Structure formats: C-alpha cells, structure tokens
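We now fix the convention by which a protein and its fold are recorded. The integers have meaning only within a learned vocabulary of local backbone shapes. A record is reproduced here so that you can trace the correspondence yourselves:
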Amino acid sequence: MKEVKKQGGLNAEIQSRIGHQLRAMYDDVVRQGVPDRFAELIRKLDGPEAAAAQIDDTAKNDGRD
C-alpha cells in the first residue's frame, strides 16, 4: 500500500493575517522603548571596555588622516 501524505499548513490569507498581527504587536513593543533602569544596567555591563572602543572609533573617524 502506498502511504498518502496529508498536505498541511496555512493558506496565504491566514499567513498574511498572522504576519500583520505579529507586526502590529512588535511595533507596539518597539514604541515602548527601553526602560531607564535597563539602559543604565546595559551601560554598566558595557563598562570601560565599550567606552574605550567608542573613543577609538571616534578617533579613527574624525577626518584627520
């Protein structure tokens, strides 16, 4: 006997609706921004190494070649 595979999945209309809903939810989250306490924590975790790297990048790109 030959096994028949059942076609599954979502049609294009359903996929489109899900995509629109996910984008709307994601946009709402992005608009909320990063809370100040998280931004401060990230700055602390980056520490002096990140600050030094930023200074190095600025010096390389200041146009004094």
